[in-house]
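Wait, mind explaining this?

_____
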Amino acid sequence: MSSPAEGRVALVTGSSRGIGRAVARKLATEGYQLVLHGMREGSAKTTADEITADFGIEPLVVHGDVSDAADVKAILRLVFERHRRLDALVVNAGVHEAGFLGMMGDAAIERLFAVNAVGATYTVNGAVKLLRRGTAPSVVLLSSVMGTAGSAGQVVYGATKAAVAGFARAAAKELGPAGIRVNAVAPGFIATEMLESLDDAGRAERIAATALRRLGEPSDVADVIAFLLSDASRFVTGQVIEVDGGLVV
C-alpha cells in the first residue's frame, strides 16, 4: 500500500545535517520526491546518497546561500525544471551565534538576520508560485524556543527566530485563501552540532531545565514537521508549535 505522501514534492533547506537531515530521512520514509539543499556545492550530497542507499529515492541536490536572493531564485528554478511544482517546503537553513548585547559584532548580527530572517523570507516568497501549483501545499519554518521565550546571550539569535514565527503567522493568513498552509516549529535543546560545544555541566543544566529530562533528538522535531506537512494536519495553519520537551510550559 502506498503512503498518502507518495509522489509529493518537498524541498528541505539546510538538509546536510541536524534537523534538516532528519527531516529529509523522515520524508523519504513517506515516499516524498525530495529536493535537498545545502549552502555549499555538494554539502547535501551525503544526505542524498544515504537516502538513495536506504530508500531507493534519488533526491535533487541543490546549493546556494539563502541570504542571497539570486541564489534562492536559482534553486527554485531547478525545482521548477525538475518537478514543475512544490507540495511541501521546509525552511530549515539557519545559522547560530550566541553573544551578550554590547559584545556582538556587527558582522555576526547582520549574518544572523540575513540567513535566519531574510533568507526564510526569500525562500517562501520565491516558492509561492511553485506552491500554488502543488497539491495541498504546506510550509513549515524553523523558529526556536529562543524566539518565543528568549534567553540571556541569545538576544540577537532569538530576535531572528521571533521574526520567523511572526512571518509564519502572517503568511498563513495571507496564503490560506490559496489553500497554502504555513506553520512553524520552535525546537528547544536538540542534540545537534549547535550543542556540541557544551561541557558536561552545561548539558546537565539544559537537561534539568527540560521537563522530560532529556535533550531532544532531531527525529523528535522531524516527526512534528512531517505531521504539519501531511493531510493529518489539514486544518492547522498559522501555528508555532514548541518541540521542547516542556522547556517552556
In short: The beta strands are 9-12, 33-38, 60-63, 88-91, 138-142, 181-187, 240-243. The chain has eight helices and seven strands.
